[in-house]
Design goal:
Length: about 290
């Protein structure tokens, strides 16, 4: 089938994250989805290796960035959205329920009074079902909460970019034990995605290859997910999924970068404001976030 868009994928092995550039072939307009800013927790240094790979592609293909789309406020990597916007433009967008996530983590981090949990840090907040354009190509924002309250998937040209809601069939599904997460809600969001046409291509945001598979992968289809997702294939009831997900989540450690990442990502990838010495600081709340595992 002829496609109106091209999709270029960028896998970051440090965080297992896949970023995407979706480009309208007719106009060269593009959307960047879930870009990464590198961060070394040990040294406190940021770097732009992952985002620069995206930037080189945009420049080499002479693409014009209209959108920088976040599927949610990630807990496993810092967002490269602001870095890319400063170089290639585009509007940074996320689902409108980011406000709930901001309110939760504003309290956890005791953020500065000037930080308002109103979504104003982003250029656009999508409502569920809202349509938008990438050049001449229509796209739809779909709310898929459960992993977090604010998760969005983006349906573009016969493909859906799922964020953390679904992984590859042999990996399964996202956890639901972060603040505001809910396994029942996650199941219903997954079923919403699996009701898309069977041939719909699915692009996931992370891959953690299981033993024996080898190389990371990030593209599958609705039909393949329905037939073989190890957590939520057809025939798995909501009750069975919730029991599995709850038991599994209780064994998982918190992501390594959750505490530095979220305080940046609720700001649309902007680092915290610098202190009077010109240095920006991340806040690590002690004994405040539930200990996992």
């Amino acid at each position: 089938m002829d496609r109106s868009t091209t999709v270029e994928s960028f896998f970051d092995p440090e965080t297992g994250t896949v970023s995407y550039v979706v480009a309208d072939q007719a106009t060269g307009a593009a959307a960047v989805i879930d870009p990464v800013l590198d961060f070394d927790f040990r040294s406190g240094h940021t770097a732009t290796r992952a985002a620069d790979a995206v930037l080189r592609h945009l420049q080499a293909q002479n693409l014009s960035v209209q959108w920088i789309l976040e599927t949610h406020a990630h807990a496993d990597h810092l967002s490269g959205a602001r870095y890319l916007q400063e170089r290639v433009g585009g509007r940074i967008a996320i689902g409108e329920h980011i406000r709930a996530v901001q309110a939760t983590f504003r309290k956890l981090y005791n953020l500065e009074r000037s930080f308002l949990p109103d979504g104003s840090q982003f250029d656009h907040l999508f409502a569920d079902g809202e349509t938008f354009m990438i050049g001449t190509v229509p796209a739809t924002a779909l709310r898929v909460p459960g992993h977090t309250p604010a998760d969005m998937a983006y349906l573009i040209d016969g493909a859906v970019f799922t964020g953390d809601t679904l992984f590859m069939p042999d990996v399964g599904t996202a956890r639901a034990d972060f603040p505001g997460g809910d396994a029942h809600t996650l199941y219903r969001s997954i079923r919403r995605l699996l009701e898309l046409p069977p041939q719909t291509r699915m692009y996931v945001c992370h891959d953690y290859p299981p033993p024996g598979r080898g190389e990371p992968k990030w593209q599958t289809t609705v039909a393949q997910q329905r037939a073989g997702n190890v957590h939520v294939h057809d025939g798995i009831t909501e009750e069975a999924f919730v029991a599995m997900r709850t038991a599994r989540d209780a064994t998982l450690d918190m992501p390594t970068l959750i505490l530095p990442a979220i305080q940046v990502n609720v700001r649309a990838g902007r680092l915290p404001p610098a202190d009077d010495n010109g240095v920006a600081y991340l806040r690590i709340p002690l004994n405040a976030l539930r200990k996992a595992g």
